[in-house]
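Exercise 7 asks you to align residues with tokens for two separate proteins.
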Amino acid sequence: EVQLVESGGDSVQAGGSLRLSCKVSPGTYMRYCVGWFRQAPGKEREGIAAINSDGRPDYAESVKGRFTVSKDIATNTLTLQMDNLKAEDTAMYYCVADANGGSRCDTVYYGQGTQVTVSS
């Protein structure tokens, strides 16, 4: 059974930074696509950043240039560095791992989420 445990959510002011972490278990899922989704109040859940199985990062346009996704195979940890945060980044952030051992995060498992609130 996969376990995805996020941490690092907080309340910050616009322009600030946060670093989210996710422990992935079992570690075999780190070989597949792993990434981050988010869901703002009243909006659909959206994928914002992922590392495909070939190691290449991929970002939604809304976060490109501000967020950086990375993974540490040794510690089975996925990280999302978020800089220059905006009020519209306010959302519940979810760590995800591909459910089918695939190269892209198409069908995913979700963690329990961590809340990020950005005040303007």
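Second protein for Exercise 7:
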Amino acid sequence: QVQLVESGGGLVQAGGSLRLPCAASGRTFSTYSMGWFRRAPGKEREFVGSIRWSDGRTYYTDSVKGRFTVSRDNAKDTVYLQMNSLKPEDTAVYYCAASSTITKTYDYWGQGTQVTVSE
């Protein structure tokens, strides 16, 4: 089992920045990848970005490329989502998730943190 706790959400003006940490605990040595997802009001949950734990390779959805960065701190078992140039359409609940080396699917989820971007 892996436990995930996000923090760092809040209210920010358009053009501003936020950094969301996600602290992992438990069987973190079995982590294959950690990802960030978001769910906006009235919309489906969507993939935002991810980082492969073994080599740090990152992936992003097109709408956040060049604005968002996923990074990790192995010593702290923490992954970060740095969000710059925020837009009102980035308003959502942001979730981090972890996949195991066995299933390679996102089996573990945090509770989510609200990000609201005002005009």
